[in-house]
Each structure stands twice: as C-alpha cells, then as structure tokens.
C-alpha cells in the first residue's frame, strides 16, 4: 500500500497497485509548478483512491495538473487521453518502495544543475 497526502492534509491518496514509470520530470511546467524537479510514478486511474477536493488546472490541451487549493501542493498529473494518473512521489509517506527509473524532458531542464545519477535521460 502506498499512501500520500498534501502538506496541509486536506487531500489524501492511496493505491495497492505497483507504481510504474517512476521518473524525475525536468519540463518547464513541472519546474514552475513545483519549484524544481517533479518526481512521480503512475498507476491506473481506477487504482488510485483520492479523498479531499483536488483542484485541477488545464496546463495544456493534452493534460491537467491536480493540486490542493489550501496549501498549494502539486499532487497529480493526468493526460486527457490516458487511463493512468501520476502522483507526486514527494507526497508519499515513506517508505515508498519505489525506485526511480529515468529522467524525462531533460532538454528543458534548468541550467542551474546537472543530472549525475546515471539513470536514463529522455529529451
């Protein structure tokens, strides 16, 4: 069981499913919304239970981002045409049991850091 919550505790989520695609996203949208690199993994949307009121922001024609309107925690990313949902690994209560697989959107990464962990990098 993986459980997580926002900073203020107004939103909780949990899943019994094994998370997939654990990654660090370096895209400009994730950097701006999170203030840095956003780490996430995904499960089938039907496998994630969310309690509390998630506010959704349509960040592009392809996806939306879910956050807590009370504390601002960026918790979810959902593509409109997929049946999966990504959740913030930083919001998961340890131990997560998750191992990062890759870095994504590295072509858009900030110029103030280097990626040196040896994980695969996708432009």
UniProtKB/TrEMBL annotation:
Source organism superkingdom: Bacteria
Transmembrane segments: none
Gene3D superfamilies hit by this protein: glutathione-dependent formaldehyde- activating enzyme (gfa)
Keyword entries, A-Z: Lyase, Metal-binding, Zinc
GO molecular function: carbon-sulfur lyase activity; metal ion binding
Annotated InterPro entries: CENP-V/GFA (IPR006913), Mss4-like_sf (IPR011057)
Residue ranges of domain CENP-V/GFA in the record: 2-114
Pfam families with a match to the protein in the record: GFA (PF04828)
Family to which this protein belongs: Belongs to the Gfa family.
Name of the protein in its database record: Glutathione-dependent formaldehyde-activating enzyme
Organism: Tritonibacter horizontis
């Amino acid at each position: 069981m993986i459980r997580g919550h926002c900073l203020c505790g107004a939103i909780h989520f949990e899943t019994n499913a094994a998370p997939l695609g654990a990654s660090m996203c370096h895209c400009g949208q994730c950097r701006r919304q999170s203030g840095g690199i956003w780490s996430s993994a995904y499960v089938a949307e039907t496998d994630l239970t969310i309690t509390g009121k998630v506010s959704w922001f349509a960040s592009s024609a392809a996806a939306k981002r879910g956050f807590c309107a009370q504390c601002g925690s960026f918790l979810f990313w959902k593509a409109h045409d997929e049946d999966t949902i990504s959740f913030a690994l930083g919001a998961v209560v340890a131990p997560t049991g998750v191992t990062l697989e890759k870095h994504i959107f590295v072509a858009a990464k900030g110029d103030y850091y280097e990626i040196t962990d040896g994980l695969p990098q996708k432009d």
